[in-house]
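ok so dumb question maybe but i'm new to this and my supervisor (M.) told me to 'just get the structure for Cell shape-determining protein MreC' and walked off. so i did the thing. is this what she meant?? sequence i used:
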Amino acid sequence: MLQLVDFVIRNRFFLVFVLLEVLSVWLIVRSNTYWGATYFNTSNYYVAKTLAFSNSAREYTKLDEMNADLANENARLHALVTTLSQRKPVDSPAGYVPDSAFAARFTYTVAKVVDNETNKHNNVLTIDKGTAHGIKPGMGVISATGVVGKVRFCSEQYSVITSILHSQFMVSSKLVRSKEIGYAKWAGKDPNLIDMIDVSKYTKIFRGDSAVTSDQNSVFPPGIMVGRVETVAVHPNQTFYNIVLRLSTDFRNLSYVYVVQNQQLGEQENLKTRTIEVR
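this is what came out, is it supposed to look like this??
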């Protein structure tokens, strides 16, 4: 308290000067219409700027929460779109009506990427969901923009995903315009490009055409983006095109993914096993 009194005494002339200046400004603003309006407009401008900065800072601190909410909403929309598309397949013959359980067989679980590789020959990534969240090896993984990979190992809280940027990973893909089906397989070079193999050269391929997951996938829903045709080449002594796709997923900036569960996968796999045994 004594220090405060001492400070006021030592700076009394300066404090009186400041007080008089403030009083003068207040009297001018109160008695003069022009300066009153100028003060009002200027003060409102800076108050608005301050509030905008405060709101931006508050929203920035909530970005993780907002991203998580958007990811959950995307998962719900993915499930809805997949169900609707399976109820009315575009290429289905007249009279075909799919079973409702078959149409709704895919469910989605949101997960956050906690580790990711793009510069190796066989790349994997790690997500923050495991067996405690219903994740199992063999499940497909997609992003908001396209195919990501397949679950390889699981612990209780984490899972390791075999990325599409892996030499042993292939996914059945279909070109939207030409309807041709092949396999997307990474050549181990550029993380933005992937090869599409086993597409017959006796059909027309369009540069820029979309490649999506085909109906022959049991792990991925049909119609999930893989990439777009970047280049098309063919050698005279070959019967297949050399097609390069530009991946739709940017693996260097992957934050959230969706683990896809096919509720009828077990039944499909059991039938395959029985077929192999019979053969």
